[in-house]
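Researcher: Hi, I'm a grad student and pretty new to this. My advisor asked me to get structures for two proteins we've been looking at. I'm not sure of the right format, so I'll just paste the first sequence and hope you can take it from there.
Model: That works fine. Here's the first sequence with its structure tokens right after it:
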Amino acid sequence: MSHPLSRRTSGDALERASGRPSPSRLERAVRSEVDLVHGRAIVQAARTQAVEYVAYTALRAVEGLTELEAQALQRNPLGDARYKAIVDTVTGTLARIVAETGMG
């Protein structure tokens, strides 16, 4: 019965002599690389869904604020500049949040 270390050493010697990894080592390396790429893809998909959700929520918020601004303007036209300033400020803040979500 041979010693496990001697088998490993002889296998390493064969790899060095042929210049190619053994099939089982190559399979493990390929499987490891595929797992890594698959894991990265899952993370990217989750990020995509997060950005989509945040963007959708922000758009709905801006839509509601724009409608509210229009209603306020009908009730009190003199507040036009103030309403616009508030809605534009919130819209800018939401746009920044969406952008930051996309970068993270």
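Researcher: Oh nice, that was easy. Here's the second one.
Model: And its structure:
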Amino acid sequence: MIASSQSVDPTTQYAALQERVSGLGQQFLHFEQTTTRAFQQVESAISTLSAEVRAGGKTQWQTIVTSVGVIVAILGALGGLAYLPVKNGMEQFGSELRILREAMVPRSEQAERWRRSEEDIRTLQIELRRAEARFVGRAEYEERWRCRENK
């Protein structure tokens, strides 16, 4: 995640996290209840199918096909419920990755910056050597001043 420059009160963060956790707990309970109901419906559909197959001597294809359709619909709904949080997480991850890629400096551009910095350092070293060559030490000036005073 990208960190924001604003400071947030720890109590506010704790309250927000607590609210999110309780919301997730409620969602999990709702999911559990939905799943339980779905399995009860599947169990009842299988029981009905079993009773109808036992009752008649011939195969009840219409009942079997209907029961399979109900089971497929329930399993599809459960799969959708399980897939939705994963999809949302992947979308969020993708958007964060996109932001990171936009902020990233390419290696070639970084290499060019390093090359320019090295050239600037070499130029500064050359200028420093030239300045040192033109530099006359204080001792030499003091010697000249003494010579002038002694005259």
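Researcher: Is there anything I should tell my advisor about the second?
Model: You could mention this: The chain has a mean pLDDT of 84.
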